[in-house]
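Field log, afternoon session.

UNIT: design team B
ACTIVITY: writing a sequence onto a fixed backbone
BACKBONE:
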């Protein structure tokens, strides 16, 4: 592997050989991403987890994807239900993002939500949401990629700042720059 030197002498570089996972994580941390909570399941089986590995794939058909670690507890819930919601978080929802981020996460029934047309929970006060039907999964490295077709979406009329993730920290868009 070849790495092009950066202008600063203080930059840590990964030269030829295997890529160091910690250095890769640090490098990718310089890419600003939005923060979502993926929710799936219904009733007592409803669960959610914080995810920043989300992207739009196609407008026609309307497809999106997100990735979960292969050992994520939400993986089986999404696979079993075949539906999920992507909840885009607003800057003031940072505590909610952290609550869903750990191994022992928030419980959906304890968080204000409503059902989507697919029956999965949509978090109240989210910046926007997409309710999706699972159309494909793929095992890639230590993650599963979930591709879903958007069957419902919501964009509230209020103007809010998004919650973003940058260099391992969450905050408002203005705070990240």
């Amino acid at each position: 592997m070849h790495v092009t030197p950066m202008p600063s002498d203080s930059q840590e570089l990964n030269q030829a050989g295997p890529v160091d996972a910690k250095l890769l994580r640090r490098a990718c941390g310089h890419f600003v991403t939005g923060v979502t909570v993926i929710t799936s399941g219904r009733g007592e089986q409803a669960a959610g987890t914080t995810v920043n590995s989300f992207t739009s794939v196609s407008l026609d058909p309307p497809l999106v994807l997100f990735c979960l670690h292969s050992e994520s507890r939400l993986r089986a819930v999404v696979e079993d239900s075949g539906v999920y919601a992507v909840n885009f978080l607003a800057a003031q929802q940072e505590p909610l993002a952290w609550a869903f981020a750990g191994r022992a996460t928030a419980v959906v029934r304890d968080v204000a939500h409503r059902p989507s047309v697919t029956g999965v929970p949509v978090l109240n006060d989210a910046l926007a949401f997409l309710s999706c039907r699972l159309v494909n999964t793929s095992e890639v490295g230590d993650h599963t990629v979930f591709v879903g077709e958007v069957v419902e979406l919501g964009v509230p009329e209020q103007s809010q700042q998004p919650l973003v993730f940058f260099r391992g920290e969450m905050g408002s868009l203005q705070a990240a720059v």
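LOG NOTE: Residues 1-5 have pLDDT under 50 and may be disordered.
NEXT ACTIVITY: expression trials, pending approval
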